[in-house]
Amino acid sequence: MKGKIIGIIILIIIAGGLFIPIGSSSNSGTDSSVAVTYGETTYNNNNYKSMVDQYFENNGNINLNKAKETVITASDVNKISSDISQRTYNSNQIFSCAMVDLSSKNNLDIDVDSSITTVTPSMYKSALESAGITKGHVIVTSPVTATGESALAGVMKGYETATGQVIPEKVKDAANNEIYTQSEVVNNSNVSADDVAKVMQEAKEEVAKANTTDSQTIINIVNNIASNNNIQISNNDINNIANSIQETQSVQDQASQYKEQLSNFVNSGKAQNIFDQIMNTIQSFLSQNR
Q1: Is the distance from CB of 240 to CB of 185 less than 8 angstroms?
Q2: Helix 235-250 crosses helix 252-268 at what angle (to 10 degrees)?
Q3: Does residue 96 carry a pLDDT above 70?
Q4: Which residues neighbour 266 within 8 Å (Cβ) at sequence distance 6 or greater?
Q5: Which of 108, 200, 254, 255 could tie 168 with a disulfide, CB 3.0–4.6 Å?
Q6: What is the pLDDT of residue 84?
């Protein structure tokens, strides 16, 4: 009898338009806390997009049929990189993609595919925490090898799309600057990405405790942390890390506001996945008809 009831409910759900096949790009009626951002090169190539979608579904253990989709263009990336790394990208160079899942109340969890060659999970985590993001499951991938630097813009856009709350521009700029700074230090030295992220994270914590934006004080903190961890970083890279932390520290009031908005969203129950809602409805129906 219960099997018949479930079958009837599923038919009602399908007939009511709540069922959309996997891979559909439709965003109508989205009620999910899952957001996917595609690099425009990937999005415009059906094979690449299919590869990325499959990766997200397999590694996120989730269906994308109700995910909110956004495309990150070369123009979007250049608005960031032109002020930070002075690099410019063409529309055929934006491959990195990201998925944000806020259906869990767990702390920030980041998975990065091996196709991402430069930016590591710890680097993304450090930059996202600077923006007040401490919740959610983030997956970053690319159909071809990519540095992953531009993916942070997509991750933050994913959070904005999922929550409906805009991250302040200065906060986003500071987080993006942090990723680019760490990437440059890795590229300019023999220091591993995780060691650079370690120095950045520990230095940010010390700066926050000291509640300072004084440049020389921050340089001294970065120097001490690198020395204490026996991590050899050039003076120029030390200064660049310190400048990035100074920018991050100067926007912490705004980052804290977004952190509170994100927490409220996750804890409100709005972040519940659509399929969880359907199953809860079914379970409630069954409990009333035992």
Answers
A1: yes
A2: 60
A3: yes
A4: 102, 105, 135, 136
A5: 254
A6: 59
Q: 161: Cβ–Cβ under 8 A, 6 or more apart, which residues?
A: 35, 37, 68, 70, 100
User: pTM here?
Assistant: 0.77
Please state whether 214 falls in left (phi above 0), alpha (psi between -120 and 50) or beta.
beta
pLDDT above 90 coverage of the chain, percent: 56
**Quick check: 241 and 203 in contact, CB under 8 A?**
yes
27: three-class secondary structure by DSSP: coil
Locate the DSSP E strands across the chain. Answer: 34-39, 68-72, 97-101, 109-112, 137-141
14-34 mean pLDDT: 43
pLDDT tens digits along 229-246 = 999 999 999 999 999 999
Q: Hunting for tokens 């991402």 — which residue is that?
A: 116
- Tell me the pLDDT tens digit for each residue of 204-220: 999 999 999 999 999 99
Question: In the sheet where 137-141 sits, what is the strand order?
Answer: 68-72, 34-39, 97-101, 137-141, 109-112
In angstroms, the CA 200 to CA 189 distance is: 15
Q: Collect all residues with Cβ–Cβ distance below 8 Å to 263 and sequence separation of at least 6.
A: 134, 135
* DSSP notation for 211-230: T---HHHHHHHHHHHHHHTT
Instruction: Output the pLDDT for position 85.
Output: 60
The mean per-residue pLDDT over the stretch 218-229 comes to 96
277 vs 238: CA distance, rounded Å? 49
pLDDT (tens digit per residue) in 153-184: 889 999 998 888 899 999 999 999 999 899 88
Both tokens of 260, joined, read 């509170």
Residue labelled with tokens 């994100």: 262
What is each CA distance from 110 to 124, 128, 184, 230, in whole angstroms? 8, 10, 21, 27
